[in-house]
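Following up on my earlier message about WTA. Here are the inputs again, as you asked, copied directly from the submission form:
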Amino acid sequence: MSYPFQIKSQEEYNERYKESVEHPEKFWAAIADNFLWRKKWDKVLDWNFTEPKIEWFKGAKLNITENCIDRHLATKGEDAAIIWEPNNPEERTRIVTYNRLHKRVCQVAQMLKNNGVKKGDRVCIYMGMVPELAYAVLGCARIGAIHSVIFGGFSAQSIADRLDDAQAEYIITCDGAYRGEKVIPLKNVIDDALIGNKTVKKVIVYTRTRTPVSMIKGRDIWWEDEMEHAEHQVEKDGKVTFEAEEMDAEDPLFILYTSGSTGKPKGVVHACAGYMIYTAYSFVNVFQYQPKQIFFCTADIGWITGHSYIVYGPLAAGATSLMFEGIPTYPSCSRFFDIVDKYKVNILYTAPTAIRSLMGFGDAPYKNNDLSSLQILGTVGEPINEEAWHWYDEHIGKKKCPIVDTWWQTETGGVLISNLAGITPAKPSWATLPLPGIQPLLVNENGKEVTEPDEDGLLKGNLCIKFPWPSILRTTYGDHERCRKNYFATYPNLYFTGDGALKDKDGNYRITGRVDDVLNVSGHRIGTAEVENAINMHSGVVESAVVGYPHDIKGQGIYAYVIYTGHHDAELTRRDITMTVSRIIGPIAKPDKIQFVSGLPKTRSGKIMRRILRKIAEGETQNLGDTTTLLDPGVVEEIKNGKV
Ligand code: WTA
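Thanks, got it. Here's what our run produced:
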């Protein structure tokens, strides 16, 4: 398989970019022509950003799994689609060929059908990083059920909220998941999440850890039994078939929940055709993927990076995707590079936070490994600092691997701004140029495009996109108005990303971080309001305010200011509050620092002045800016003095 839409030179990039702006519909139609359609589209694009309404390839019919699996079978049925590396390196690895993947996905589809799952039904998937997770996702897509994968680090309460929001009727989970030395009892968490739930009819449980579980009669069923039964149904005379559901281009493919500046996570909805095209297009261009290369994305499928660049993008491109169950530091800090060495990985895609944490081990992570198979490196999820970039370049890439710094979001479905490996130049800590088809711009507070460079010759503003691309989110599940308000109402006729950015004279972008109340902790998005709500659940807490502060490894740490009533042992209460947050959201949202205060800096109208709290958390004590509008300026002194 070659990739006719793979850009091979800087000149071609320039030409393609120009074409994509001048004739976007022609540009995308030419790319879409490389996919398998049951029926081609009537219209390439119909859109407005005011409602918003975005429809790509309207009238077209397809099934994404036929593109990710079936069409590769004739030429690469015996090639590895997924290579799976278990948490414990002693355990047997699994190589899943395209033929095998096809069979398993057909079985899952049949199993779901047997249990009453239909097109459009919501299936929540809460599993560890086992191949069955990929089968589950693709099995849903095969029958047109909408999957909602929830990361294994979320709590029962978070799952309950998501089940409720999506009105999910089915769950696929595991007894437990391995993460380093820990076993996470996933099924038990699901049981807690289901207390009081009224929508879920069936829970399918895959056995991974042999953690004891309780199986509720009539509701809970074993994956293994169901899959065995389904196997007999899909296999006839040695041939495997399960007719894929014919989907409309704009039918929803999945929901993925992500944090915003309000308390409740939003269910970002992606559509079948546009998401498929864009993930494949961005995958082969950004990583310059060549057939037979082994691509290792270290993300979890519970996040968008895993959806787009472990499952859909690589498989749509007929690639070999390496899936890793464990964590970078188990059994030792060289695990990522043991894996690179073991499978001769060619492309490694990871997060700056992982790089920064490995840097702390000196040369131990890589000194005993042969990394000569590596050709391209990538980062995602947060700004990468120059020090980490150079460490990655020198010690992992040995200065011969292009590094792509890929900027994108759950809502964008795929990478929007990045250099193309070895084709367009890298610039440490800069995401650099938009992919052809992507039209970013920087605006000021009033939505005016920023055109005046600052004293360093850079444009500085809020990052927006002015034209749709195929994998832009279509809505937030069950609440279109929320989608409009969140992304399309801040600046008229623009998609607002929530990020701030700089732009240099060559058109390169540097993402500086969120400008809303969203934190990026170890590459995970967490809303400050969500954490505050969780803290406020603790009895004794009167009020709280959460801000981010620079953290050497996590990028941002969580700093909480808490008003607490009565006498208390500060250390003990801190632990209790942390536990509460862990219960309500999950361990990923635990505050790093908690400071008890007697009041919060508020304006006369009662608004918390987060700017001041942020500065204090960052260690700034002098230039706190204008404090004259504060109701009680005295409180600032107290907070400064009590900084933890
Ligand atoms: C941040 C992850 C700087 C950004 C794919 C964005 C980045 C948020 C980069 C989305 C990057 C992601 N450089 N910042 N290369 N990539 N971000 O939805 O703030 O989990 O808005 O998607 O991560 O996080 P999300």
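One observation from looking it over: Residues 98-245 form a domain with the Rossmann fold fold (CATH 3.40.50.980). Hope that helps, and feel free to reply on this thread.
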